[in-house]
C-alpha cells in the first residue's frame, strides 16, 4: 500500500502546499475618503450609504435602473 490518498496527495508531506512566511499574498490599498456632507436619513436609506461619493449602484442588467 502506498502513502498517497485517493486525492493524489501525500499525507506525509502536509506542509508542502503551505506558502512560506515570506510570501506576500496581497496588498490592500485604501484611499482616504474626504469628508463630505452626508445624505439626509431618508435618502441614505434609499441609496444604502450616507455618503454621496460611496453611492455606486449596481444594476444586474448593466443599465441605469
- Estimate the strand proportion: under 5%
Structural class: little secondary structure
Tally of strands: 0
Helix content: 10-25%
Number of helices: 1
Low-pLDDT runs? none
CA-atom Rg in angstroms: 24 Å
Order of helices and strands: H
Distance between the termini: 62 Å
InterPro entries: Spore_coat_CotJA (IPR020256)
Region (Disordered): 1-20
Protein name: Spore coat associated protein CotJA
Please tag this protein with its features.
single chain; 65 residues; little secondary structure; 0% strand
In terms of topology, how is this protein built?
Elements: H1 41-47
Polypeptide structure, described:
Helix content is 11%, strand content 0%. The protein has 65 residues and is low in regular secondary structure. The chain starts with 40 loop residues before the first helix and ends in an 18-residue tail after the last helix. Residues 1-20 are annotated as: Disordered. InterPro entries: Spore_coat_CotJA (IPR020256). It holds the Pfam family CotJA. This is Spore coat associated protein CotJA.
